[in-house]
């Protein structure tokens, strides 16, 4: 069981598709199939279900966790040695659902530490705990809670989320609205899994309703523009509200205490953070979020 075999297993486990994994690894599919078969033979148990589409089974999920943590420790050791034997601070890897919010602190960090290589990884919150524990990334910022042991956290911001409508919308002159009043409205929303969409679905679920989605996508910067263009209404966090001129859209309070988002920074409780990562953590936690630049 060598490191190359373990790395190949992780790619197959992530993609759950042999030909796609072989393409990513740039090896022949029959060779990759033999590698996975040898690994399963050595372990004495199948790691994938092969009835129909390839699926990582419970044993495979268990083994994947150990492999990720082991390779993560080796990578952390390599980076620690590189940091100890070099004059620079090395590399820091930050993951988030979106980076619009972080333009200010990232710019300040890069200006203060120009020699640091900053890697940005856009991933869903559901992936963050696993990536942190595997030490694939150093820090993660999520707009929804991550309930996993082995992580430490610092809340950065707890803010209200507003309803944005076109100026000519019938609700535009209201100071607040209820979820029931929004039942038939077309929403401009993020894709499922993103905090923005999860909040919308959760708010409607409390009233046994389902939101009517007119637009669903990953271009968060387009949400406010589509709302201003009159294609629907949508939820906008307070940070983004500051970038929307009052002459282009109406912003209305939603009559629910749940219509908020908490921005939280996470890192591994037992992981060795490099100097670069510790400096970025300090920059992000010390940032004045209530006076942050208006970003989506």
What is this structure, in a nutshell?
It is built from 10 helices and 12 strands.
Q: What this model shows, in words?
A:
Strands 3, 4, 5, 6, 7, 10, 11 and 12 form an eight-stranded mixed β-sheet that branches. Strands 1-2 form a two-stranded antiparallel ribbon. The chain has a two-stranded parallel ribbon with strand order 8-9. Helix content is 40%, strand content 22%. It contains ten helices and twelve strands. The protein has helices at 3-15, 18-25, 29-43, 58-84, 103-112, 125-133, 195-205, 220-228, 238-241, 275-286; strands at residues 48-49, 55-56, 91-96, 117-122, 139-142, 151-165, 176-177, 186-190, 212-217, 234-237, 250-254, 260-268. Strand 1 and strand 2 (55-56) form a beta hairpin. The longest helix is centred in the first third of the chain and has 27 residues, at 58-84. The protein is α/β, with parallel strands linked by helices. The chain folds into two domains: 3-66, Arc Repressor Mutant, subunit A, CATH 1.10.10.10; 89-296, D-Maltodextrin-Binding Protein, domain 2 (3-Layer(aba) Sandwich).
- What's the Cα radius of gyration? 22 Å
User: Overall 3D geometry?
Assistant: globular
- The count of DSSP E runs of length 2 or more, i.e. the number of strands, is 12
Note poorly predicted spans. Answer: none
- Helix % is 25-40%
CATH architecture of the largest domain: 3-Layer(aba) Sandwich
Main sheet properties = 8 strands, mixed
Portion in strands = 15-25%
Number of domains: 2
- Average pLDDT, rounded to a whole number, is 87
Q: Quickly name the level 1 CATH class of the largest domain.
A: Alpha Beta
Structural class: alpha/beta
CATH topology type of the largest domain? D-Maltodextrin-Binding Protein, domain 2
Give the termini separation: 46 Å
Could you give the order of the helices and strands?
A: HHHEEHEHEHEEEEHEHEHEEH
State the helix count.
10
């Amino acid at each position: 069981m060598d490191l190359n075999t373990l790395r190949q297993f992780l790619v197959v486990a992530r993609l759950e598709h042999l030909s796609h994994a072989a393409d990513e690894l740039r090896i022949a599919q029959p060779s990759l199939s033999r590698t996975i078969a040898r690994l399963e033979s050595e372990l004495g148990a199948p790691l994938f279900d092969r009835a129909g589409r390839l699926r990582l089974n419970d044993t495979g999920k268990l083994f994947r966790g150990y492999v990720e943590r082991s390779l993560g420790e080796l990578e952390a050791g390599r980076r620690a040695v590189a940091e100890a034997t070099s004059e620079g601070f090395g590399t820091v890897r930050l993951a988030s659902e979106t980076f619009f919010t972080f333009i200010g602190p990232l710019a300040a960090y890069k200006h203060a530490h120009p020699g640091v290589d900053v890697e940005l990884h856009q991933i869903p919150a559901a992936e963050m705990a696993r990536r942190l524990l595997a030490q694939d990334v150093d820090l993660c910022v999520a707009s929804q809670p991550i309930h996993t042991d082995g992580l430490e956290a610092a809340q950065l911001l707890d803010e209200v989320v507003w309803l944005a409508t076109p100026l000519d919308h019938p609700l535009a002159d209201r100071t607040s609205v209820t979820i029931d009043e929004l039942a038939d409205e077309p929403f401009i929303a993020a894709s499922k899994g993103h905090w923005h969409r999860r909040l919308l679905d959760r708010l409607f679920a409390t009233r046994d309703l389902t939101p009517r989605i007119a637009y669903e996508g990953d271009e968060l910067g387009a949400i406010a523009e589509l709302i201003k263009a009159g294609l629907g209404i949508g939820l906008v966090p307070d940070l983004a509200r500051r970038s929307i001129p009052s002459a282009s859209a109406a912003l209305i309070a939603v009559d629910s205490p749940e219509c908020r988002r908490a921005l939280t920074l996470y890192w591994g409780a037992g992981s060795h953070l490099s100097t670069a990562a510790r400096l970025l953590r300090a920059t992000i936690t010390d940032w004045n979020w209530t006076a942050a630049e208006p970003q989506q």
